[in-house]
Amino acid sequence: MLFLLITCFTFITFLYKSLSLKPLPLWSSEVRLLSIHFWKDFLILLNPFKKGFLEAGFIHFITSRMSIRRKSFSSRVENVDPNLEMSVLDLPELALDCILERLPPEGLCNMASVCSFLKEKCKSDYLWERHMKEKWGRVIGPAAYREWQWHIASRNDSSFFNQAKQRGFMTYLSQFWPISLVSRSNFSISIKKKHTASVDSVMSWYLALESGKFWFPAQVYNRENGHVGFMLSCYDAELSYDPRTDTFQARYPPHGRRAIAIETGVTWDRLRAPPLDTSPHDLYISDCLTELCPGDHIEIQWRRNKEFPYGWWYGVVGHLETCDGNEIYCRCHDSDIVMLEFNQYTPGSRWRTTTIDRKDHREEGNEADGFYGGIRKLQSNEEISMWRHLWPTDALE
């Protein structure tokens, strides 16, 4: 039996070497793979006769050849070009839109500089409206939008004037230069204009706000760094954003003999969009007087004198002096007189309370105590909690 095994081993070795020197047909890979199973079965048959060095040498030879054949076959199957890469432009349009929707403003600006196709995509108002609402929605109102439209109109007028001047200059140059040179210069100018961002796009508005170059109207709580004379008030101002400190610079309009007041370092939590589209110099016509009841939270216009702009001051509706405050017997809501309380002031202060006429309320007051204007009732808990957040630690006198 040992002689038979040695003879078979010699014959198989000779046959393998002789076949490896000749070119094999295309189906040789499959045949070699089938031979793997053959050698496994053959080894099982030889299992009772394996002895010493024969077992080690023969099995090592067969298994090593099997692993070499397996590796060579897998390398041919996985013949993929590693330099082949997929571009983001190869994605379906819906997938590309989903990616762009998740990019921050900085990412959209970077993506817009890749190519003209992505530039048009990244300038879409649909993408920038979400960023505008998330960051600027709480401080931007209709007044700021009108200011932006006026800003665009002024830029368009200036650009039209410059184009008219340039067109006249080109007409003058055409008398001396060839027409082709003049038209070529006009073509290069039109190409530059084509690749600039649209002035009236949401992207342009967002970037103008971020740069701090655009001043927009809004309202500031506790103006002039919380000066005691403006506690629990909200005044109109023009604001400019400072991206380095993430704060604002406020510019309050002049009033009386006072010049423009400027305040720096105004934080986001002290800003709001004007809740009413009313000029700070106009009296607001109240529409809530008939429904005011004790306990209602209100804002009322107040100004020092006729030359000052109005500011909005926080207060609550209180009980009349003839009422003991018992809710069961209270008839304050039936009276024509409404009691307003400003509890941030100490009892006995001249600023603590005031009364208005429910049926015929106009601007009321005098030069000593100031003038009270229109009233708006606070409907949302968010507005009420904002005023409570600004409540002074010490009572005012």
TrEMBL record:
Highest taxon, organism lineage: Eukaryota
Gene3D superfamilies referenced in this protein's UniProt entry, alphabetically: 1.20.1280.50
PROSITE patterns noted in UniProt: FBOX
Regions annotated as coiled coil: none
InterPro entries listed in its UniProt record: F-box-like_dom_sf, F-box_dom
Domain F-box: 85-131
Protein name: F-box protein At2g26850 isoform X1
Organism name: Nicotiana tabacum (Common tobacco)
